[in-house]
Amino acid sequence: MSAALAAVEGSVNTIGFGLAAIGPGVGIGIIFGNGVQAIARQPEATAVIRQNMLLGFAVVEALALMGFVLAFALGG
User: Fold this and answer.
1) What is the pLDDT along the chain (76 residues), one digit of tens a residue?
2) Would you give the end-to-end CA distance of the chain in angstroms?
3) Is residue 57 included in any domain, yes or no?
4) Which residues does the annotation list for site: Reversibly protonated during proton transport (predicted)?
5) CATH code (residue 35)
6) How many domains does the chain have?
7) Which domain holds residue 69?
8) In this structure, is residue 69 part of a structural domain?
9) CA–CA separation, 76 vs 58, rounded Å?
């Protein structure tokens, strides 16, 4: 019985990380989608917009990496 519980616990960690990866994926899509629209509307501000896009990408990706690390750290 305990072996079955250990198998379920491992699966729950994997499922939890998979669900946690959805948020950053959506966030990255929104960041780059809106960034491309902003560049299309104001090409002269490309450098500033690109810099802000990459900063936002780094923050969102850091959240995904923290979730990945926590899935292993708390998984036992």
Assistant:
1) 566 655 555 567 777 777 778 888 899 999 999 999 999 999 999 999 999 999 999 999 998 888 778 777 776 5
2) 18
3) yes
4) 61
5) 1.20.20.10
6) 1
7) 15-73
8) yes
9) 28
Cα–Cα distance list, 17 to 7, 9, 43, 68 (Å): 16, 13, 38, 6
The answer to the question of residue 68 being in a domain is yes
Distances (CA, A) of 43 to 31, 37, 50, 51, 56: 17, 10, 11, 14, 19
CB 66 within 8 A of CB 29: no
Q: Among 28, 22, 2, 13, which residue's Cα sits nearest to residue 76?
A: 13
- pTM for the whole structure: 0.72
